[in-house]
Amino acid sequence: MSKQRVLSGIQPSGKLHIGNLVGALQNWVKLQEQYDCYYFIADWHALTSQYADTSQLRENIKDVLVNCLAAGLDPEKATIFQQSHVLEHAELHVLLSMITPLGWLERVPSFKEKQEAVTDKDLNTYGFLGYPLLQSADILIYRANYVPVGVDQVPHLEITREIARRFNSFYGEALPEPEALLTAFPKVPGTDGRKMSKTYNNCIYLSDPPNEVEQKIKTMMTDPQRIKRTDKGDPELSPVYHLHKIFSTSDEQNNVAEGCRTAGIGCIDCKKVLIKNIFKVLEPLWERRKIFMAKPDDLKDIIAAGSQKAEKTASETMALVRKAMNLDGLN
Predict the structure, then answer these.
(1) Which residues does 1 contact at the CB level (< 8 Å), separation at least 6?
(2) In order of start, what are the domains of the chain with their CATH numbers?
(3) What mean pLDDT comes out for the span 218-239?
């Protein structure tokens, strides 16, 4: 039996950070062993909010690819490709735009949230409004069985299912409805305690050198109640402790939590344990990054081969779509 297909993508809107690593890449590596995985660099999606300045786009695409490979993605096991290199995404996007009610796009939660949160860019564009529709085309063009999402992201996938359902009601069963592959995505705190995000400039990047990673962790905020070394604290109020929950062993978590509550250890001691454990994860990745960065031709070949394979699958879907819509030429 052929493997069921999984589809996921990541935007090259900036350098990848440890939140991307534990929230997406590590999960992708596991999934490639069980599913027929298509992973894409969503460069068109990056343009929905960063259309005015594309000067860093090429480097960001390279950074995403290098980190995907360094994290353990294997081009022999998963199809790794660039969205804009498969033009069928755009064709299906256009055809789906003909049948998608405007209200469906306007009600997507992230549309209004991001418009309100991002004040330094003009997001009153069709590209931004149509982001969910392009995302639906990305998924449906590969007839994916599953899309890995967290529980809070299930509503975002539902619009894709609704669009597929509407298409099929008009033209016949050509586009299968994808299902959520529920995955536990840990909330990774940034250096200021908020969610790690390029928008907040609070990231530990996978491309940061070791001394910079160490310095960022050493200067992270902890429990604000612990002003002096002898002050007792609450580990749950410390972003450092929440990173311990991701990177440290259960015993280490218990030890630093107890040390915080009793003032048995200082914040610097707590951070030293975290630095050691984050380095355990990042050091192999750093070494693999060096290898891939030194082979630019190999990177081009990987993207070219993956995009070619993705294009073959996408063209098969478009043949079905064109036939279903009577766009496949004269008899």
Answers:
(1) none
(2) 5-188+296-324 (3.40.50.620), 208-290 (1.10.240.10)
(3) 90
What pLDDT, in 10s, does the model give residues 235-259?
Answer: 999 999 999 999 999 999 999 999 9
Is there a catalytic annotation at residue 276?
no
Kindly give the residue spans of alpha helices, DSSP state H, lying in the chain.
18-20, 26-31, 43-50, 57-71, 88-97, 102-106, 109-117, 126-129, 131-140, 154-171, 210-218, 239-247, 250-262, 267-293, 296-324
Q: Is 112 among the catalytic positions?
A: no
Active-site choice (114, 121, 272, 323) = 114
DSSP states of 75-98: TTTEEEEEGGG-THHHHHHHHHHT
Whether the per-residue pLDDT at 167 is higher than 70: the answer is: yes
How far apart, in whole angstroms, are the C-alpha atoms of residue 224 and residue 207?
Answer: 30
Q: Any catalytic annotation for residue 114?
A: yes
- Selecting among 198, 245, 272, 323, the annotated active-site residue is 198
* Whether the predicted pLDDT of 1 surpasses 60: no
